[in-house]
Structures are given as structure tokens and as C-alpha cells.
Amino acid sequence: MENQPLPPIGPILEAYIKDNRTYKAALARALNVSPQNLIRMRKQDDLSMGRLWQLSHILRHNFIGDIAAKLPADYTGAMQEALAEKDKAIAALQSELEAMTKERDIYKDLVKR
């Protein structure tokens, strides 16, 4: 297995703060850190899982999901398995819809006659 680089977390956090116009002082208080520590955090390439979890709850944004989205599509997990099940259900419903549409068209033709 080749070594995959970790996506830099600091820039993801920085972009979120900028895009959502989050008050940095309020975020630092909510995290119980100094504003200087928040600045350092925004420049770091990695953060602890606990800190990501805390940030996600405070900002009501799924930073862990953002990181997971950067993994290759063929990696498995509970979410991928649930999505695969839903994809199968959607495909079955689409095929049922096609069959019912054909049946409806046949009935329409019979009524016209």
C-alpha cells in the first residue's frame, strides 16, 4: 500500500470560517482556546479526531465527512454500504416505474380504440 498524503485540515477549516463568516473570537471561546491557538489550528495540516469532532458540533458542519469525501471511492464503510443498498432500491423502483409506464401506455392505446 502506498503512503497517501493526509489532506491538510487547517485550510479546510480556514475556508469554512471564511466562507461562512464565522467570528474567530467566538469560535476560540467555544473551543476554550486562545485566539492565538485558533490561528495555529487553522494553519496546521492535521488536527486530532477529538478536535475535529468538537469543531463539527460547534460549527454544525461535518468536517470528518469532508475528509472522508477525499478518500478513494472504492474504500468501504458503513455509509458506502448503506448507499449501495439505497442504489439497489432506487434501481428496482426505476425498473418498476418503466414497466408501469409501458403498461399505462398500452391501456391508453386500448382506450383510444
UniProtKB/TrEMBL annotation:
Coiled coil: 83-110
Protein name, UniProt field: XRE family transcriptional regulator
Entry keywords, A to Z: Coiled coil
